[in-house]
Design brief:
Elements: H1 3-18, E1 29-35, E2 40-44, H2 57-67, E3 73-80, H3 90-97, E4 104-108, E5 114-118, H4 119-122
Parallel strand pairs: 3-4
Antiparallel strand pairs: 1-2, 1-3, 4-5
The structure holds zinc ion (ZN).
Zinc ion binds near residues 56 and 88.
Length: about 140
């Protein structure tokens, strides 16, 4: 991943974090997806009074990318309102893994520290489309 793409993702994720709808937890998260086209798609967490309806920033950013026509995702940046970098929740790991084991996941907090993984490092043995074939 190019440094300028990573920097642009960070800017987009930080901006999205400012727009988070988090009146219940106060835990604001922004995300940015880098599509194969080079375009970047932001997302933020959107909480709901019916708590399970809440959607995470990562999945909202993926939804924005797919809605815009992207079919391959290169990387996902997660920018949480926390002193340390925060990794995606289990549901988001599964959502990212849909786009292949090599998608890069970059996590940042309020500071400049970044940690980076492949989604397969975060979710080994992910459920995949291959499991939908050959059911007996
Ligand atoms: Zn999540």
């Amino acid at each position: 991943m190019l440094q300028r793409d990573e920097d642009a993702m960070l800017e987009a994720a930080r901006q999205a974090r400012e727009n988070a709808w988090a009146p219940y937890s106060g835990f604001r998260v922004g995300a940015a997806v880098l599509g194969a086209s080079g375009r970047i798609y932001p997302g933020c967490n959107v909480e709901n009074a019916s708590y399970p309806v809440t959607t995470c920033a990562e999945r909202n950013a993926i939804g924005a990318a797919i809605s815009a026509g992207e079919r391959r995702i290169v990387a996902v940046m997660v920018c949480a309102d926390h002193k340390d970098p925060v990794t995606p929740c289990g549901m988001c790991r599964q959502a990212i893994a849909e786009f292949g084991p090599d998608v890069r996941v970059v996590c940042v907090g309020r500071g400049d520290d970044r940690v980076e993984y492949s989604v397969s490092e975060l979710l080994p043995f992910a459920f995949g489309a291959d499991k939908l074939e050959g059911r007996a």
